[in-house]
Specification:
2 copies of one chain form a homodimer. The first copy, chain A, is of the alpha/beta class and about 290 residues long. The first copy, chain A, contains 14 helices and 9 strands. Chain A has 2 domains: about 160 residues, NAD(P)-binding Rossmann-like Domain (Rossmann fold), CATH 3.40.50; about 120 residues, N-(1-d-carboxylethyl)-l-norvaline Dehydrogenase, domain 2. Helix content of chain A is about 50%, strand content about 15%. In chain A, helix 4 packs parallel to helix 5, helix 8 packs across helix 13 and helix 12 packs antiparallel against helix 13. The termini of chain A are far apart. The mean pLDDT of chain A is about 95. Chains A and B meet through strand 9, helix 8, helix 9, helix 10 and helix 12 of A and strand 9, helix 8, helix 9, helix 10 and helix 12 of B.
């Protein structure tokens, strides 16, 4: 069993850290908002007083925070304190270029890095059934996959550092297509005066069906816009998709379109709504 | 058992007519290209010498042809010859306004009409497992559903005449979203240099997954562009979606975008390819 330091106890990180505890690891935690650690401390996690202390006392450091700059900040704060050979696993969705930059800076200090963004949502984190896209050296990824096992449905090495983020961004593009298919289609049905529940059921069971239809559809029908995955997080990820695609000379016009439509929700103060609220953009209910 | 006249023996119509024969109906067939009737005639179908003769000898007339104008043409050719009370079932995907116009013109002659477009593809037609969206009076739809039972997985009345077409168009919008999600996502993965088979497998098993991922994905990976559902048919349907949406004052920008991208394939002489060939548009392989 390893000494694991876990940074970032949000809707994803908190249950992930809980699974590590249940598996018997020694877990230290740190979060910007300390209160979020309470239930984990009750289960046996140690609350680190600061990032330096967490880094000094961990063999593996997992971060699950928000944006590129957040990961940069917490990893930089730990880089000078971690013992040589410490493995950093970042499970946030960030820019692939930032993942590569962090790996380079850590390598200069004899530290190792794997980018390991996840998909499967808060339910996947709670049920320990996340899909994880891993980028790094073969040896580092094998070690990371073993540590993450308690909350993994499927984890694979997809390439060198940064590749995990690239695969996650490709995943977000697919999510965007299914999401806009759901919302544009049901908005069409609603506007025509069709029974939207019947449309959801009949269309979702056929060639237009998707995970989004099955999982976002019922919330859409109930006008339940609680996350789920928030507009804020989705537009963050789409921004990374767009800049990565631009670097490659690839046009991703659907993703750009969906991002633009979601930003209308954000502009209307609804950035914490779940992404299926895109439905309201179509029906001018902002 | 009814006397059923079946017009249009393409990849959808031929197996559907075959299921009616197997169920014990007396089936007359007509097709613009007569050779397509041969295998059905071997199974016991009567080949009608023309549309007038088919109409005179049928209690129920099913059309499964191409565009609005094709349905207009064949139904108009039969309207004066059918006995009062004959039920017309149109299974083509056409403009809702054309369905309503046909219903009005048939009603003036004492004839009945149900629009009943299908989804489920050529495999669904062969396996007798189509989903059918029915528009018409309650009594007419009940009768139509009974006749179509041999090739139905799920058939429901969704409203008055034209509503079946509207539901089919909503279905096509959802199909468009999932299709573009698949192609844009895997093109992103390919362009980055990720393993596209791994991307298909990992992404398709998660929150980005869809019927399109499962069914179009393997063809895309094999660069097998044989239909499937052709670019020509998809752009036809998207055109109907766009004009119906415009009439309603609804913007459907994703559908418009996918239609535009598919038209690039058509312009490159690839309108008979399956829709997943959209992947090649992203990778500039026209």
């Amino acid at each position: 069993m390893a000494r694991v330091g876990f940074v970032g106890l949000g809707v994803m990180g908190a249950p992930m850290a809980g699974h590590l505890l249940s598996a018997g690891h020694s877990v230290s935690v740190w979060n910007r908002t300390p209160g979020k650690a309470d239930s984990l401390v009750e289960k046996g996690a140690k609350m680190a007083p600061n990032l330096a202390s967490l880094a000094e006392n961990s063999d593996v450091i997992i971060s699950c925070v928000g944006r590129s700059e957040d990961v940069d900040q917490v990893v930089s704060a730990m880089a000078d304190c971690a013992a040589a050979g410490t493995l950093f696993i970042d499970q946030s969705t960030i820019e692939p270029a930032m993942a590569r930059s962090l790996a380079r800076r850590l390598a200069e200090k004899g530290l190792r890095f794997v980018d390991a963004p996840v998909t499967g949502g808060s339910m996947g984190a709670q049920n320990g059934a996340l899909t994880i896209f891993c980028g790094g050296s073969e040896a580092d990824v094998i070690e990371a996959i073993e540590i993450m096992a308690p909350y993994t449905k499927r984890a694979e090495r997809v390439g060198e550092v940064g590749a995990g983020q690239m695969m996650k961004l490709a995943n977000q593009v697919a999510v965007g297509g299914a999401l806009v298919g759901l919302c544009e289609s049901l908005a069409f049905a609603a506007k025509v005066g069709l029974d939207v529940e019947q449309a959801h059921s009949m269309i979702g069971g056929g060639a237009g069906g998707s995970w989004a239809f099955q999982n976002y559809g019922p919330k859409l029908l109930a006008s339940d816009w609680s996350p789920g995955f928030s507009v804020k997080n989705q537009t963050k990820d789409f921004g990374y998709c767009e800049s990565a695609a631009a670097d490659l000379g690839l046009e991703i016009p659907m993703t750009a379109l969906v991002n633009e439509l979601l930003k209308r929700l954000a502009d209307a103060g609804r950035e914490e709504d779940t992404t299926a609220a895109l439905y309201d953009v179509y029906l001018d209910r902002l």
